Each structure stands twice: as C-alpha cells, then as structure tokens.
Write the structure tokens for this entry.
Amino acid sequence: MTNAETLSGETSAHDIGKAGSTVKEGVVSSLKGINEIEAEIVSLVRSTVSNTLRATGSVAGEAIGITKDVVKGAIQATEEVGTGLILSTKSVAKGVVMGVSDVGGDVISVAGQTVKGAVKGAAEVGADVAMVARRAVDGVIEATKEVGGNAEEVAKVAVNGAIDAAASIGNTAVKAVKDMLVGVVEGVKEVASNALPKPKQS
C-alpha cells in the first residue's frame, strides 16, 4: 500500500466520522426545536382555553364547545401548513386539558371530547386516524397526570372517545384505533398501582 492510498483511506474514514457527527448534531438540534415547538403549542392552547373559559364565566357550559373549537382550529392550521397534524395533536390535547383544569373544569369529559374531535378531524383531512388517536390519548393522559387528575379514568374515557369517533368513520378505522390503543388503559392502571404504596404484610 502506498503512502497516498493510506492517506486517502484515513481521510475517507475521517470524513465519514465527520459526516455522522454533523448529522447527529443536526438531528439533536432539530429534536430540541420540536420539543420547544410542542411546549409552545401546549402553552398557547392552555392559556387560550383557560382565558376564554374565564371570560365566559361558564366553565361547565362552555368547556366542550371551546374544546371543539380549539381542536378544529389546530386541524385547520395543519391543513394550511400542509403538515404537522400528528406532531401537534398531543400538544393541543394536553393544552386543552390543562387549560380546563386551570379553571376547575371537568377534565374527564373534556379529555373524551378532545380525543373525539381529533379523530373526527383527522378523518376529515385524510390523516392517519389511529396515529392521531394515539397522540391525542397520550396528550390528555400526560396532562391529567401533570395536573394531579385521575389518569386511569381519563384513559378509559379518552380511549372510548377515540373508538366512538372511529365508529362514525367505519369498521376499518375502529380496528386501526383499537389496535393502536390496545393496552393504554391497562398501562395507566399498572403505572398507578406501582406508584401506590403497598399494604404492609402482617
């Protein structure tokens, strides 16, 4: 092997290593950007929902209507941009539940309504209904845990809401949503039972 060949081999290995590092840094930066965007969406939705409910003075009567309106607005935004529905669904769902919680509203019914609205909206725009259902369910459960609500009950209502909404779309949608959400309620139960103190053995 000549000196030139050895040098060329070392350079190419170095370049590949450098290319990998460049891609890694770019992906890390992008993922941090996605996390920031998701946090901004949660914050925007949360403050919009809670401020609107405070302004109307009727948390119980208006929460469902505002939830529908917010979910519809988010879906229209993703249609306008042409992407982002699956990504933004979790953040929007989380923000809605947190906003309703901020004003003492019924988190459980709003969670179910949020998931229903997301699934129906996804079907209307031709998005992946099962994936949107999963992201919405994850969002409402995460928000409920953060605000100290009953995550197990919210999980049940959210999953049922997703399946109900899918039923209005068709059997294929129901199957896809059920397959995607299988184990969600059990998973929440398991986490809850592991978090609770165990009774002392006598």
